[in-house]
Design a protein that fits this description.
Layout lengths: L1 E2 L3 H10 L4 E7 L4 H13 L6 E7 L5 H6 L7 E6 L2 E7 L4 H11 L1
Parallel strand pairs: 1-3, 2-3
Antiparallel strand pairs: 2-4, 4-5
Length: 106
């Protein structure tokens, strides 16, 4: 998972995004559910084609990056397709739930 720390990095990702689904996990290093979600993503990431994962740590990223998407609690997954946000999922999810959500947004 590639780390995003600035609004410019996210904007570049979204303007250059092709038909690949981009999923941005917004979390924090101290957050238990965030760690659970990260483990789940690590399990499924190698098995998925056409999906790219990115991570934003709310304590390390620019405040503007977090504010743009009105993140008030973590973890949250932001789904982008062709540069547009197509979904938002709050909280940790099981592997099967996450795969279902990803397939819905491809």
């Amino acid at each position: 998972m590639k780390e995003l720390k600035t609004i410019e990095e996210l904007d570049k990702l979204l303007t250059e995004q092709d038909s690949t689904l981009a999923i941005v996990k917004v979390g924090a290093h101290w957050c238990g559910p965030c760690k659970m979600l990260e483990r789940t993503i690590s399990e499924i990431e190698p098995t998925l084609e056409g999906v790219e994962f990115y991570a934003v740590d709310v304590d390390e990223a620019d405040e503007e990056l977090v504010e743009r998407f009105q993140v008030q609690s973590v973890p949250v997954l932001l789904f982008f397709n062709e540069g547009l946000q197509v979904d938002r999922v709050l909280g940790a999810r099981s592997k099967s739930d996450l795969l279902e959500i990803i397939n819905k947004n491809k």
